[in-house]
Here is the input.
Amino acid sequence: MASDKPRIVFLDRATLSVPIQPPGWPHEWENFDATGPAEVPDRVADAEVVIVNKVELRRQTIERASRLDLVLIAATGTDNVDMAALDERDIAWHNVVGYGATSVAEHVMALILTLRRNIVAYRQAVLGGRWQQAGQFCFHDFPVAELEGATLAIIGGGAIGQRVGQLAQAFGMSVLLAGRKGRPGRSGRVDFEHALANADVISLHCPLTDETRHLLDDAAFLAMNMRPLIINTARGALIDTAALVRALDTGRIGGAGLDVLEAEPVLPDDPIMAVMDRPNVLVTPHIAWAGRHAQTVVARTLSARLDEWHRRWDKSVF
Here is the structure.
């Protein structure tokens, strides 16, 4: 007979900075701050419940985890988990949706404001003594552009994209919602190519799929007429990073605000390393989602999903 104390493992607990309320029923819970690919199979082998944020759960691991009955993903995106393998074994899974729309949207606006107003360049200049050298109350070494009247193209119309649009409109921006690449625009959306050609800022909010991988490539950057800012808080692989760097070097785009990269943490040979110290390139460590309230919602949702699962599991055991 199965144990009456299910084992729960969280493979990358350090990705959440808020406490998680432990279940009120008998259980064994083991937290790992981080888990490397080679460590995953052994750590999940005898677990009934596995919690992950970005750790990958692939088919071979899932097939070996004979007791696995529930996978909780402490995020919205599920591209790090082999969902087909879970479904084939009838293993329940849940992600957390809707928790980070405001947190991510505010981060997007912070990136846009910082880049449009050249805040990093001015801060560096002040630290370097330029203000004293100017000899007056201000200096105008770098252009400052208002958001009002600028056009924002949003690629991905889910909860986060919609929230970004609301905040952008509050700043007086015009908002274009882009349709899918290679398809005609439909009601409420413009053609993908039209969005690229007419935007002062382009913000990505779509999931990473085979269709959207390297959505912004050399051809896409060549289609941009307004030297836009590129903002990505979704998934790093939506952008071909080498193509992005080429677009920066040739002036096809005005700057980039990236909270996600193709490999995380950033690798020494990542093309972005060559431009990361430029004032028109902002890279943050995948923390757009991590507002305190948003993380608390994630933690509470995980606890609620565990309780829901246990009521079903407890009946199946006894």
